Amino acid sequence: MYIDFHTHRPVGVGVVTPRTYGIHPWDAEKAAVPPVDDAVWRMVEVIGECGLDRVRGASMEKQMAVFEQQIAIAARLDKPLVIHCVRAYDLLLSLRKRWPMGRWVVHGFQGGVALVQQLAERQIGVSVGARILRPDSGKLRSAVVALGSGGFLLETDDSGVAIEDIYATTAAVLGVSLRQLQDDIAERYSQLLAH
Description:
This protein is α/β, with parallel strands linked by helices. The chain has seven helices and eight strands. The protein has a six-stranded parallel sheet with strand order 3-4-5-6-7-8. A two-stranded parallel sheet has the order 1-2.
């Protein structure tokens, strides 16, 4: 079984992906966050993709306000967050100090060992995507090795790359069997969704 933690495309047979809903930081200016008692939150397993983006989207003040609303909903409903974070890790880590509980996962992680360790210290997980396939992804590959098999999730996002290819490359980077990686990620995913 393959788990595609975050995707914008239909998944194939044998691929599991969580049901999600959230207000993306690019849409923070025009979208309203439904109240916590809205039925949309009961229908999803993970809240997001939500977060912060210093390159694109609404003002940081607006993004922060919309993101914190979703953090509060996730905390109240005991649901994990899938987080979009672009050049805003300082703000994300600061928010985590104010919201120390909850299960947070940064999707599309591309950073190195130092950043992944900072996130891990604050109990923020990561999901890695198609970038790991690139030969010039040494920094990301080092972070994956530092986390070890099962210390992260895998995703396709909007890459168009098959999740099977991402798993195969990641297993090779780690020096583990594909089966071992699948089992470890399935365990990590189960822990994330457990209430």
